[in-house]
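User: Show me sequence and structure for the first protein, then do the same for the second.

Assistant: Starting with the first protein.
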Amino acid sequence: MEELLEILSSLHPEVDFETCDTLIDDKILDSFDIVSIISEIEDQFDVVISAEKIVPQNFNSAEALYALIQELEDED
C-alpha cells in the first residue's frame, strides 16, 4: 500500500489519499492521471490492468486501487 500511496502522492501531493474515497467522483483525478497511475502500477507491481478494470469504483480511492492490485496479483 505504501508504494501505491507514493505513486498517487507524486501526482497530487495536496490530496490525503489515505482517507479520500471520491477521487473520480470529485474529479481529483483526470484521465491523464489515470493513464499515469495505470502505467506506474503496471511497472511497480508487475500486473496488467485490462480495459474492463478501468472503472470509477476501482479508482475512487487508494484502498479500492490497492484491492484491484491484490486481485490482479492473485490472478497470476
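Switching to the second protein now.
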Amino acid sequence: MEKIAALDIGLKRIGVALSLDGKIALPQNPIIRINRNQAAKEVKKFLDDWNIDILVAGIPIGGSSEEEMKKRVSHFVNLLDFKGKIYFIDESFSSYEAKEITKGKMRQKRDGKLDSIAAALILERFLESRKCK
C-alpha cells in the first residue's frame, strides 16, 4: 500500500495530512513556517519518517494570484528533493471548508490545525479522484 501525504502550503503555516491506507486522510501536526528552508527541512523529515510514496500539494486554481501561487508551491516542493510521485491538485475553498467543518467545535486559532484539516480535505479530493479512474 502506498503512503500518501498532502500539503496545504501557506506563507505562515503548512498544513499536513497523511493516508496510510489510501482511504482515510488524517490531519497531522502543522508546520509553522519561520522561513522556507526551515519549513522544507521539517516537511522533508516528515516525508522521510513516514516513508511517503506520493506527495500531493494543493494549488489554488482560478483567481488573480493563481500563477504566483503555482510558482511558490512548485518552488517549495522542489526544495524538498522528494523522490516519489508528486501531484498538484486544486485546493480551492479547502481552508474555507475546514473552517466550516470546525465551526463551533474548535476555536479559530492561528496554530495551523485548520491548515492541516485543509490538507486532509485536499488529500480526500486526491483519494476520491483515484477511485474514479
